[in-house]
Amino acid sequence: VVHRAHYWTVAPAGNVLGLDLQTLPPSEPEAIVGSQALDVNIDGIVVGSQWGDSAGRAPLLWPDATKPPIELPLPGGTVGFAYASSINDEGIVAGLAYDPDNPDNGMSLVVWKVAVVDGVAMVLDAKTILSKAVSLMPQVTNSGYAIATVNVSTEPETYEYRAVRLMLDWNDDQVWEVPGSRTQLFDDWSTANGVNEAGTVCGRCASPIPGEWGIAYVMTVSGELLDLPVLPAVKRKGFTYTAADNEEAMALNNATPVQIVGRGARAFTQGTFQGSEKVPLRWDGETSVTDVRTVTEGSPDLFSVGDINDAGWITARTTDIHGQPALPVVLIPSQ
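The chain above was modelled as a monomer; its predicted structure follows.
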């Protein structure tokens, strides 16, 4: 049984072309194999992973959506479980790989330099950048900024996650970390979810308010935190909604002002009935915040938003009848 990653191209008018991406042959005849596509660059090169048999999880690169993938080789000191999560337009790939020498049995941040010539993919370099336990999905930009969420604890099985930004550089056949470029963004708990070409990072960090678990943040390369506006309280269809707490920023683009997508949380009441909901949000810098469900004509019920491009298009997932994630969608704002 094979569960394949999928690739879509979407035109401004909403026309969609979808393709199933090919997988590597399973190492066992009866294995259930799955693949996942996590990023694509301007040349249509796709990166992700494949899993499901005794070979573990392998980082993959598809030269384009019609060709079979290659497995990206792992740097020395990393084995088995790995995936590629980001690729820039220069062929720099970032991902994670299991590090058996890590005392926390964690993951290492790894990078590859790749090239595709006449439809044939070549791996020119592979390096381990951070051998600390790393979670979430590293990203790399065309300008060289990269992000990761790193466990800074020195104690086994103790996890103290911090958002980290660094700079990568490369030549025709190698990639490396720029010395002195690595920066931990917060002293307290934090995650790095997205980064743009200017080095502005978004994610979630510890709240200064007692009792709140975490809040959304956007930090520029100079260390300035944007003051993200809050979705105001509202009454609608017999329900009274509180102002929404900014819970997490998931991704951002290169627009001016920068646009960020993420989620908020708010309570609502109708008579004696009380409840709460997650709200998919788009912030336009420090200027405004919008419930994403209101900026697209006929927008479906959304479970979450994932990314936003420089034209303001948003990737998201709808909800099923039980409120769980269902179909992927692309939202093209009508305003």
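The chain has a mean pLDDT of 89.
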